[in-house]
Amino acid sequence: MSRTKANNANYAEYMERILNALVNNTVDFNVIDKEMTTDISMITLNEKNEMLSWAKNIQKKYNFKTSQYIGRSTVKEKGDLILDEKITELKCVSQNNGTYYNTSVNYFDKFHILNPVIAYEKIGYRNFLQKLIAPYGFKTTDYGTMSFVDQTTSSIIQKLPIYKQIKSIDNIIRAIYVDKLVKYFNTHPQEAQTFINDMMKKDTKGTAEQLLIYNYFNNSMNLIAVPDIITQNTKINTIKKSGKYSLRWGSSAKATIAWQNGTGLNNFTIRVFI
Question: How confident is the model at residue 2 (pLDDT cuts 50, 70, 90)?
Answer without folding.
Answer: low
